[in-house]
DNA sequence: CTGAATCCTTTTAGATACTG
DNA sequence: CAGTATCTAAAAGGATTCAG
């Protein structure tokens, strides 16, 4: 909090695109839940489906495919009957933790609509 | 990096929604550019329009309105002719800096598609 | 058990013209 | 100068059905 970003460096135009891309990678509706569960341990598809409240089979598959394509989860297929698929972390996933943590801290402080509205009002006065 | 989030605490279901909301707040296509410029100093509408490459008047207005509604920018109208409107930071904006910084760090390390793909491949092997 | 295919709704972004 | 009003396009999310 004592380290204003803007005072430290400028941002090149291309970096905005990269930063936006980073946001896109984790902005899927279920991706944070998925990643969080995987931070604890590898999970099977059915485990994720049962654990994540409200997600459909279709959406879970799609979010996992996107995460996999972006290198944020690993997908391991075991040649068994019945089939077993396990999802796990990558180095990129692990490196993402501090950013998620920082966002969660901020969300707890300022993420509440009422609180944010109050802050804005106070700033206007 | 030495502090795995998952090892420290669990996340309540409601917190996922809050975290997703935080992401939504900053996920607009032009919001990061806007916030970054405002971190340096207050800007007028026309200044933002000229400085941010590729944004249209319409989109800039909409993104600013959303940021304002979310308490991430202040909007000050000066009763002058011609009209002058200035946008600035709020406490919530300032508190957001560390999270943006963390995301940008991660993006520089893992945000490149090629790099991410390589990481994923290495993890699979 | 894991997931692909199809169709549909909602959200977000953008282009264009007009205004106090 | 700083917007608003329409309209259109693209992306994201979701329900349902079928399959190795």
Sequence-ordered SSE layout with sheet pairings:
2 copies of one chain form a homodimer.
Chain A (H helix, E strand, L loop, with lengths): L4 H4 L4 H14 L4 H10 L2 E2 H7 L5 H13 L4 E5 L5 E5 L2 H20 L2 H12 L1
Antiparallel strand pairs in A: 1-3, 2-3
Chain A binds a DNA duplex (20 and 20 nucleotides) through helix 4 and helix 5.
Pfam families (chains A, B): HxlR
Keywords (chains A, B): DNA-binding, Transcription, Transcription regulation
Protein name (chains A, B): DNA-binding HxlR family transcriptional regulator
Tell me what you see in this structure.
The structure is a homodimer of 125-residue chains. The mean pLDDT of chain A is 87. Helices cover 64% and strands 10% of the residues of chain A. The first copy, chain A, has a domain at 13-93: Arc Repressor Mutant, subunit A. Chain A is globular and about 65 Å long. By secondary structure, chain A is mainly alpha-helical. The two termini of chain A are 23 Å apart. In chain A, strands 1-3-2 form a three-stranded antiparallel beta sheet. The first copy, chain A, contains seven helices and three strands. In chain A, strand 2 (74-78) and strand 3 (84-88) form a beta hairpin. Chain A binds a DNA duplex (20 and 20 nucleotides) through residues 28-29, 44-46, 49, 56-62, 77, 81-85. Chains A, B: Residues 17-115 form the HTH hxlR-type domain. Chains A, B: GO terms for molecular function: DNA binding. Chains A, B: It comes from Sphingobium fontiphilum. Chains A, B: Pfam families: HxlR. Chains A, B: One of its GO terms (biological process) is regulation of DNA-templated transcription.
């Amino acid at each position: 909090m004592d380290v204003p970003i803007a005072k430290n460096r400028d941002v090149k135009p291309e970096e905005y695109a990269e930063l936006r891309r980073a946001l896109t990678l984790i902005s899927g509706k279920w991706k944070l839940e998925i990643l969080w569960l995987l931070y604890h341990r590898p999970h099977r598809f059915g485990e994720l489906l049962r654990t994540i409240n409200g997600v459909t089979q279709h959406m879970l598959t799609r979010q996992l495919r996107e995460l996999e394509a972006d290198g944020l989860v690993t997908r391991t297929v075991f040649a068994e009957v019945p089939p077993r698929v396990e999802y796990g972390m990558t180095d990129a996933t692990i490196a993402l933790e501090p950013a998620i943590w920082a966002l969660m801290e901020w969300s707890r402080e300022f993420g509440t609509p009422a609180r944010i509205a109050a802050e804005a009002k106070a700033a206007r006065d």
